[in-house]
Amino acid sequence: MKGVLTRFAARSNLLHRTLDRRTAATAYTGSSLQMELAKYRVFKANRVRFQQARYGAIVGATPKFSAHPKWFFAAMTDRGTRPAVRDIVVFVQDKPGGPWLAAYTPLATKPVSGPLVPGIDVADVPDVVPPGDPSLAMPPVQVSAALADVINQGGRSPHLRAFAVPAWAKTKRTSLMSDRKTFRSLGWRGEASYSASQAPVYAVRTKSGGALVWTAVELKEDFRRAGGGRGVTWKHSTWGDLFKPFTGRSSMKKAITTVERIEVLAYVPPRGRGKVRFLANRWAPIAITGN
After folding, report:
1. Domain enclosing residue 126, as ranges
2. Bond prior to 99 in cis (omega within 30° of 0)
3. Which of the chain's termini has less CB crowding within 10 Å, N or C?
């Protein structure tokens, strides 16, 4: 594991300096690769720089496998940022002798060291959890769809009671409602909603009998201007203009389709022993088209 993490730290820092989309697949795969490629496009166009990571205080576990693909996870404290954060990364190897690549990279702002969940631990060689495991408060394969429904419907969602809803999810719900209202007020018509991502789900057993689950949700917004409506722009507070790096223009006047992804790490307790809690997340727009 140590050699894999050392190589990843060096390779990801190099990629974050060069923003080289052609070689991103030497460190990333799956969901993380899509998100990294999108960020490189935005950062290069807007002259934004990544902070270089300084990893330490690493904890992790390697599940039991009899064949490939194999995967393990590592929670790595990054003190290259202020304040420190923790990247909780799933590394995947598709075939014997193949590279270990980061497939999920959600980050946590606290805690940034020690156990991922107070009182919850994972064995050094834990079991992989089946996607449909009925012994849990929610099967891993259902977490993303249920979370998407909670963001879409708020208090009307039948899944609301299953979650300890984090502040960021409440903010996403507020932003979703605001986007729908804003587009309508500007004379645009269309749809905006969250759904489960098609990215693979990874889950590992905890000593409590619960599971750590890596999954993702996506927000798709698809709008067309009706009649004499006004054009729209999209600027991120630190990343800058998000439309121009993808479409070549800063203002959309006729049509716009965007896809945003949020990777999440959830702790799912055994059935009847509490609510699903979210430990880490990472956001990025992964596709934008329009004119």
Report:
1. 2-290
2. no
3. C
- Closest by Cα among 114, 82, 98, 91 to 12: 91
Give Cβ neighbours of residue 40 (< 8 Å, ≥ 6 apart). Answer: 15, 19, 20, 21, 24
Check: CB of residue 282 under 8 Å from CB of residue 105.
yes
Q: Which two tokens stand for residue 63?
A: 């599940």
| Closest by Cα among 214, 7, 202 to 99 | 7
Cα radius of gyration rounded to whole Å, the chain: 20
- Domain count of the chain? 1
Percent of the chain surpassing pLDDT 90: 85
- 89-93, 230-234, 242-246, 263-267: lowest mean pLDDT where? 230-234
